[in-house]
């Protein structure tokens, strides 16, 4: 009974008993989440979702980052969209998903609505990451290769876990909530086939967050769902994958924490390109040359790095973020850390497009073997004078095996919010985030986040 084992484990998680490294990592991820979501809230697709939710209104329970407040489910929907709005939210490589955009938004919305303690919301976050990442890893890459987007499909289990924990659901209630959540698990990769109409991907963190809260709320009222939602014949893992590793769900349960296996993104683009970007930057630091000196660029890595990622003339921000040739060109000739490098103003840059046309690809057997446990990648830059500059990176910077210190997380926070927050606001928000570790509450943090982007505060 894997589902039952997991829900029992969820109830045993205690913030005070977690290793200090896991506690610190959770706070780092919350800092990152707030920065990414505030920046993402300014995007047009995020504004559309917010305005739609505001039109329905309801009791203002939970903060919509930067604005006012809405019912918990609606706030989670809006914030989930903003958190996934610029391809800068954290990732769990093995499950091919973005847990933070789902779990953090759920826990913050529910925690604020319930006036939970800081330790309670942090426990819910750790629990949500545990479930979403373990279940996603068990389904494996075959689910992704079959056309499902794991963030959207498996994310609902991370969300229902976080919400259920904060609602103090019993083990039996939480198992039933998993059964309810199963019927809402959805989300395909069709957006990757349409370079123009890609806004829907931004909902792939929003929908599971809202549905997870809904499932937990229903279970709290006595509504029931089937048992064995994860491992049953028609449960999540068996329905979304033909290459199932059920043992992965409980492997090292209680001793290895999935939140410690999360990557903080340093580049606002597809995570499968990050090692390639690191390799490019190493090459650029090693040899001096001009962009006009380049004869060809060969990108190498696992096959998935190229599959459906070869659009050379992106026509949307997401298409640019998912284009390997465009991203490689940005890494060489622009700033891959800046979200604006993938914005509309950059799609027609002649130097970027010329470099994009020079990019070829090669599947590397060694890098293929480590995927998806590791998103490795490399680059070979050939110059007109005959020089060849090459580098491969197995663990990109800020991955679990190559982590960055909190100081760098705060640098990312400040960079993403430099046009949104003044120094005083930034300091107050960071202080409120750090206070979650002891005497803070989601409501305290939520108050600091309201009204930043709008004068209308609910």
Content-based structural category: alpha+beta
N-end to C-end Cα span: 45 Å
| Fourth-tier CATH superfamily name of the largest domain | 2-methylcitrate dehydratase PrpD
CATH topology label of the largest domain? 2-methylcitrate dehydratase PrpD
Helix percent reads 40-55%
Indicate the CATH architecture of the largest domain: Orthogonal Bundle
Provide the succession of SSEs.
HHHEEHHHHHHHHHHHEHHHEHEEHHH
Largest sheet descriptor: 4 strands, mixed
What's the overall average pLDDT, rounded? 94
Outline of the structure:
With 458 residues, this protein is an alpha+beta fold.
Structure description:
The chain has 458 residues and is α+β, with helices and mostly antiparallel strands. It folds into two domains: 2-261, 2-methylcitrate dehydratase PrpD (Orthogonal Bundle); 271-393, 2-Layer Sandwich (60s Ribosomal Protein L30, Chain: A), CATH 3.30.1330.120. It contains 21 helices and six strands. It has helices spanning 2-12, 20-40, 44-56, 72-83, 99-114, 118-139, 141-145, 150-153, 155-166, 171-182, 203-220, 236-240, 247-250, 274-286, 317-321, 324-333, 350-357, 365-369, 406-416, 423-435, 442-449; strands at 62-63, 69-70, 294-301, 359-363, 377-383, 388-393. Strands 4-3-5-6 form a four-stranded mixed beta sheet. The protein has a two-stranded antiparallel sheet with strand order 1-2. The termini are far apart.
């Amino acid at each position: 009974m894997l589902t039952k084992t997991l829900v029992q484990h969820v109830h045993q998680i205690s913030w005070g008993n977690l290793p200090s490294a896991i506690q610190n990592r959770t706070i780092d991820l919350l800092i990152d989440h707030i920065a990414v979501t505030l920046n993402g809230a300014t995007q047009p697709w995020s504004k559309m979702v917010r305005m739609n939710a505001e039109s329905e209104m309801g009791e203002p329970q939970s903060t919509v980052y930067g604005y006012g407040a809405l019912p918990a489910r609606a706030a989670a929907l809006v914030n989930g969209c903003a958190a996934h709005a610029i391809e800068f939210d954290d990732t769990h490589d093995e499950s091919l998903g973005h847990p933070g955009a789902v779990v953090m938004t759920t826990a913050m919305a529910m925690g604020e609505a319930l006036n939970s303690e800081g330790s309670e919301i942090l426990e819910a976050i750790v629990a949500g990451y545990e479930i979403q990442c373990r279940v996603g890893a068990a389904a494996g890459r075959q689910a992704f290769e079959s056309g499902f987007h794991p963030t959207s499909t498996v994310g609902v289990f991370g969300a229902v876990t976080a919400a259920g924990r904060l609602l103090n659901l019993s083990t039996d209630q939480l198992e039933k909530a998993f059964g309810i959540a199963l019927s809402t698990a959805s989300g395909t990769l069709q957006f990757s086939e349409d370079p123009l109409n890609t806004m829907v991907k931004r909902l792939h963190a929003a929908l599971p967050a809202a549905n997870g809260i809904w499932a937990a709320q229903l279970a709290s009222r006595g509504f029931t769902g089937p048992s064995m939602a994860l491992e049953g014949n028609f449960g999540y893992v068996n329905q979304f994958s033909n290459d199932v590793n059920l043992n992965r769900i409980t492997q090292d349960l209680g001793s290895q924490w999935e939140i410690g296996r999360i990557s903080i993104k340093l580049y606002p683009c597809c995570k499968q390109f990050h090692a390639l970007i690191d390799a490019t930057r190493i090459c650029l630091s090693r040899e001096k040359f001009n962009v006009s000196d380049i004869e060809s660029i060969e990108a190498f890595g696992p096959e998935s790095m190229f599959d459906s990622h070869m659009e050379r003339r992106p026509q949307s921000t997401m298409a640019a973020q998912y284009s390997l040739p465009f991203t490689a060109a940005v890494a060489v000739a622009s700033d891959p850390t800046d979200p604006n490098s993938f914005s509309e103003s950059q799609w027609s840059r002649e130097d970027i497009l010329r470099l994009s046309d020079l990019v070829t690809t090669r599947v590397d057997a060694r890098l293929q073997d480590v995927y998806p446990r590791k998103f490795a990648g490399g680059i070979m830059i050939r110059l007109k004078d005959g020089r060849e500059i090459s580098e491969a990176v197995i663990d990109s910077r800020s991955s679990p095996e190559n982590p960055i210190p909190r100081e760098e997380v705060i640098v990312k926070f400040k960079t993403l919010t430099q046009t949104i927050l003044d120094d005083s606001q930034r300091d107050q928000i960071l202080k409120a985030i750090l206070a979650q570790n002891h005497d803070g509450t989601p409501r305290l943090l939520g108050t600091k986040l309201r009204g930043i982007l709008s004068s209308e505060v609910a």
